[in-house]
């Protein structure tokens, strides 16, 4: 009887672990335009050397055929928007990831950033100056 309970406990633990890992920030997300509500791009959130990054992997209806980050500075200056790593160096802090930066390719400015899941298919992305009350929040949808 004890072995049967142990097996049930192990199976339940495994299912909980699988369920929780399915609800993380990693993967592909559709960014949504603040003013029109339309999808603007698809980004990939990934982990590298213990930190979290995001890069643009697709633009939806770009205004230019091969847009570059002409307003960006430093190593991002004149880099193609597709493939651009624009979320840099976030670290997990409980349910949110923070301590890094997010680049706005439209104006070339870097902002402090944090991201967290609202639910399994909605990612809250907040860029801000100074402290998080002075900033802008977007809600991205998980891409299929």
Q: How would you describe the overall organization of this protein?
A:
The protein is mostly beta strands and 144 residues long. The protein has a single domain (25-142), classed as Lipocalin, CATH 2.40.128.520. Helix content is 14%, strand content 48%. The protein is built from one helix and eight strands, in the order αββββββββ. It has one helix spanning 2-21; strands at 27-32, 39-48, 51-59, 85-93, 96-104, 109-119, 122-128, 135-142. Strands 1-2-3-4-5-6-7-8 form an eight-stranded antiparallel beta barrel. β2 (39-48) and β3 (51-59) form a beta hairpin. The longest helix is centred in the first third of the chain and has 20 residues, at 2-21. The chain is globular and about 40 Å long. 17% of the residues are buried. The model is unreliable at 6-21 (pLDDT under 50).
CATH class: Mainly Beta
Largest sheet: 8 strands, antiparallel, barrel
Q: Uncertain regions: pLDDT < 50 for 5+ in a row?
A: 6-21
Which sequence of SSEs, written as H and E, runs from N to C? HEEEEEEEE
The overall average pLDDT, rounded, is: 87
Number of domains: 1
* Annotation, overall tally of beta strands: 8
- CATH fold description: Lipocalin
Instruction: Give the CA-CA distance, first to last residue.
Output: 43 Å
Q: In one word, what is the shape?
A: globular
User: What is the strand arrangement across the widest sheet?
Assistant: 1-2-3-4-5-6-7-8
Structural class, by secondary structure, is mainly beta
**Approximately what portion of the residues adopt beta-strand conformation?**
over 45%
Helical coverage, percent range: 10-25%
């Amino acid at each position: 009887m004890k072995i049967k309970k142990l097996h049930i406990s192990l199976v339940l633990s495994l299912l909980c672990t699988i369920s929780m890992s399915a609800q993380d920030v990693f993967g592909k997300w559709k960014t949504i335009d603040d003013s029109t509500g339309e999808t603007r791009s698809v980004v990939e959130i990934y982990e590298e050397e213990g930190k979290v990054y995001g890069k643009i992997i697709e633009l939806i209806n770009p205004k230019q055929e091969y847009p570059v980050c002409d307003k960006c500075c430093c190593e991002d200056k004149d880099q193609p928007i597709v493939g651009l790593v624009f979320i840099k160096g976030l670290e997990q802090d409980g349910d949110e990831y923070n301590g890094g930066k997010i680049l706005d390719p439209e104006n070339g400015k870097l902002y402090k950033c944090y991201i967290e899941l609202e639910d399994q298919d909605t990612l809250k992305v907040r860029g801000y100056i100074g402290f998080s009350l002075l900033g802008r929040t977007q809600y991205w949808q998980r891409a299929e």
